[in-house]
Amino acid sequence: METIAGREVCTTLDEVLHPKHTALIVVDMQNDFCAAEGLWGRLGVDLAMSRAIIPAMQSLLDAARAAAVPVIYIQMTNLPDMGAQSPTRIRYGVLKLKLKLDQVICSVGSWGANVIAEIAPRPDELVIRKWRYSAFDGTPLDQVLRSRGIQTVLLCGTTTSVCVESAARDAFAHDYYTVVATDCVSDIRRDWHEASLLLMQSRVDLVNSPEIKQIWQSARR
What we know:
With 221 residues, the chain is of the alpha/beta class. It has helices at residues 13-16, 31-34, 39-42, 48-52, 54-66, 87-96, 141-147, 160-173, 190-200, 209-219, and strands at 2-4, 7-9, 22-27, 71-76, 126-130, 152-158, 177-186, 205-207. It has a single domain (2-219), classed as Isochorismatase-like (Rossmann fold, 3-Layer(aba) Sandwich), CATH 3.40.50.
């Protein structure tokens, strides 16, 4: 910790990721995005990366819970009739992705909107619905974090180049130390994933989950 311009600033990863002020945010690990029977799977989207990160995410979740790090799940949500969609988003989904009008991803209350069973939230863990890419856009996430004294947002989930990156940039804009667990994020294309991490590294700490878990274990001693 250093005092810079009259403010105490975390300078090491041990300080940034200390369990007492860190929250783990799980982004969009939902059936429609990550399960073979979900909408993306049925449309033939490559889910290999999203499936591959599940064991690392399970381990990171276990470590967070053991270290008393709050776990918050972010749940992408849409209305079944696209009632919450703007013309720009309808243009993207219907005209660019070629989705049919009844192919609404993560429709509210549907199985597809649920978090995948492998990393399902515990009963005491908060699930925050969102209607846009960023976990901060139109949600109470910032208020929840500040109420709990959180200074660091640790992100995992999917997709790296869209919803994870959107949340990371907004977290930094909201003055949180921002960390992405590099082996716990995924995309539908490897080049998009790698490009997103390359761009984020100028503002975000990129750390793999074994290093994060080691920091938390050391803080408990």
